[in-house]
Amino acid sequence: MRLPREDLFWRIEPLLGSVERPSRYLNHEWGAIEEQDGPFHACVMYPDIYDVGVPNLGLAILYDELNRLKGVSCERAYLPWVDMCSLMRENSIPLLSLETSSPVASFDLVGISLAHELVCTNVIEALDLAGITLLAEERDEDEPIVIAGGPSAWNAEPLAPIFDAILLGDGERAVSRIALTVRDARTEGVPRTEVLRRLSGLEGVYVPSLYEVVIDETSTRWGYAVPKTGSDAPAIIRKHCIAHLKETEPVAQRIVPYLSVVQDRLTVEILRGCARGCRFCQAGMTYRPVRERPADQVLEAVERGLQTSGYDECCLSSLSTTDHSQCAGMLHELHENLSGKGIRVSIPSQRLDSFGVDMASAARSSRKAGLTFAPEAGSQRLRDVINKNVTDENMDSAARNAFSNGYRRMKLYFMMGLHTETDDDLRGIARMAERVVGIGREMLGPKSKVTVALSASVFVPKCHTPFQWEGQLPLEETHRRQRVMLEAATDRAVRISYHDAETSLVEGALSKMGRKGFDLVLAAWRHGCRFDAWTDQFDFESWRQAATDIGLDLEDIACERFDLDARLPWDHTSPGVSKGYLQREWRRALEGMTTEDCTMGSCTGCGVCPTLHVSNDLAGERA
Amino acid sequence: MSTLSPGACRLRVRYAKDGRLAHLGHLEVMGTIMRSVRRAGLPFEVSEGFARRMRIQFSQALPVGASSVAEYYDLLLPEPIDAAQALEELRASTPSALAPTAAKLLPRRMPALEAWANRATWDVEIACTTDEAQAFPSELARTRERGYLDFMRGDKPRHLELGPTLVSCEVLSSACGLRLALDTRTTEQGSLRPAVLVQAVMGRPPVRVCRLGQWHEAEDGNLLDPMA
Ligand code: SF4
Q1: Which of the listed residues A19, A61, A429, A587 has the most CB atoms within 10 Å of its CB?
Q2: Which of B21, B50, B54 is opposite residue A366, by nearest beta carbon?
Q3: How far out from the chain centre does Cα B110 lie?
Q4: What is the per-residue pLDDT across B100-156, written as a single tens digit (0 to 9) for each?
């Protein structure tokens, strides 16, 4: 139901004294855009709490761009924490936007960011709290057009029945086109179905209701989506891709929250895309090609962003910051410009070699927090399978460099359950961590307090990667392998932590099952599941029960392998990387053959550039 | 300890906490003000060590939910600046509900604000029935006679003597029930929060608490204004 647009802050204000961190609900932060005159009103929503959603750069980009459009206003909404959700339901208060405290159900356009699979139940929770009809096809004519986007939009099938449209790829410009298309269609007074038809004609826009799922002998049991008869929707929706990052606003993040949030700092995106080609990595495949923001634009943006926000930390963000061709020069200059001002520069994680450590030192990253590396696998053989092109020597030289630069702590990220993994590979993880500790002791003395925190996540096969056909490990086997690794680590300076195998199993199931996943998500939500990414809220038994309710088994879904030639539930969406390339990469993985990074060597034929008419856009020569 | 530069001083700023920002916690107010100072482009000293932070001191934490017209901070400066201009710049860079209302340069060597400003006055509004309003003065007298409060702060039990911490409490009537003009003192043992007192007397918290002023109580009992 479309609700009237009115300021309802007076209704939540009396509740603020009874909830955790009331500042989540106050709005009017520095940088928030208070004039929201419209007349076209959009609301971007992050389906988790404010503290997690505010730092999200993708949403900040859309907020900034939409508010620059003449005649269009854009507000934000987040999912209230469980205490506030309950109080709002008790008092029949719908989900509100932040800027004007208007019901989310009063907006013309609602855009939801999908950061990962585990936000699925939160999306339902948010729409339910908002009072927006859950199924797109059942929405009233005048209800908001509900769209989605973000990294996990590549696997939006489990939520497809909810969304009127899904944006694949870069949000810049595409979001304006969507807003203007909806506005113009609404002004003309055309029916909702026509609004959606027009949206489906835009680059990168997928309108699920125009497709039906077919299951046949060419597909997996989850089928594949084809345009409905009579619809002129494209058979394959290719992502929207901006050619040059330098043509986008570098300081998109303008809101400075009152409460301390997860990443409480200025973020400047210095590069988009990564062509290293790790075969498990969805972002590496879906964000291609590589587009660098030139150093002079980054430096200007950092200065301006710090001045307008007042932050005392700035993060140069990307999938692989230290790969930027001008990284060293930029960090050096930032250090010069910012020294004595009490401002820290951070880079998200370090490239696993000596250069990576040099860059961390140049950013003056905290010695106390230590350095973070991701070798991902414990043996050279397995690293070749996953195309993680780092060697034991890279690790050793990074460790030596780090210890000689004053670092005492290191965090190493690994993945377990990768294809062809053996127990010896798992023991290799422990050996690698212990070798790093050994290097530290050798350099700094046996009593030095060198520690290595080893974190092992469970491999979840993701769509649009060379491992998309792979199955996940059964729960019991994951637990057994965790024990193998744990028992292999005898040095007390190595601390091991795992990702929860059960959470990963749910993520794995949702990553495989296409549109049928919606039944699972809905059943789980009805069992009370929400905030599944929060360990204290995640309830595996309810998920298991939800699967049973619809006659399925989570393990059976997540562990299933797909035939290399099968039509997959997401084949109608394309990030530009061809299926043939992914199949080739899968075969090379089995043979342990690595594939080089096209930004440092020659084109390896992934297909993105010719398909999307773009190319790698580097600001200099990469080393 | 680093040596002070000859011009080192402090900029004392009085600011308000108003409207919906009354719901901010003390750490959130501190963070917001430090960012406002950076946005204003004022010079400030940074601490030594690896994590180099702005050197700034705040007056005593205001409870979450309480507003105020008299909060203070001292920004430690390497050299004197024009206080009137700094006030203008701070006004432009601070959310209006935390707007600075006065600024003054003071010598560098002074006691830290938090301990120094040990007296406060409060305006407290209580929603209640006429019967409850009539019973309030005698209930308050009974609580004062007992001489102490036992209460929980978070999940920790606390004990506070009322004699030294409650200087005076005048009961006035108001449209919605009662209004208290409260005068409190911070001692080494702690400080009395208006909401804690009202909760102890009435069994529920007040609807509105506003800090009207903060002072330093000199040994002779005179009250010194932080901006004097
Ligand atoms: S098409 Fe070639 S150059 Fe372009 S991203 Fe793919 S591998 Fe790299």
Answers
A1: A429
A2: B50
A3: 18
A4: 999 999 999 999 999 999 999 999 999 988 888 899 999 999 999 999 999 988 889
The answer to whether the complex's ipTM is over 0.95 is no
In the structure encoding, which two tokens stand for residue A167, read together? 């944006």
Domain A245-503+574-612 sits in CATH at: 3.80.30.20
pLDDT digits (tens, 9 = 90+) for A331-345: 989 988 887 777 888
CATH of domain A9-238: 3.40.50.2300
Q: Quick one: CATH architecture of B119-224?
A: 2-Layer Sandwich (3.30)
Q: Phi-psi category of A148—alpha, beta or left, where left has phi over 0 and alpha has psi -120 to 50?
A: beta
pLDDT exceeds cutoff 50 at B1: no
Over residues A564-602, the pLDDT tens digits come to 999 999 999 999 999 999 999 999 999 999 999 999 999
Residue A228 CA, chain-centre distance (Å), reads 30
- Tell me the best of A291, A598, A602 to mutate to test the pocket of ligand 1, counting ligand atoms within 8 Å of each CB and taking the most: A598
- CA nearest to A28 within chain B: B95
Q: Write the DSSP string, A412-429.
A: EEEEES-TT--HHHHHHH
Q: How far is the CA of A272 from the centre of ligand 1 (A)?
A: 14
Between the alpha carbon of residue A121 and those of residues A24, A50, A116, A527, B179, the distances in Å are 21, 17, 11, 10, 47
Tokens of B96: 């209006």
Distance between CA atoms of residues A112 and A156, nearest Å: 11
Chain A hits for B37, CB-CB cut-off 8 Å, are 310
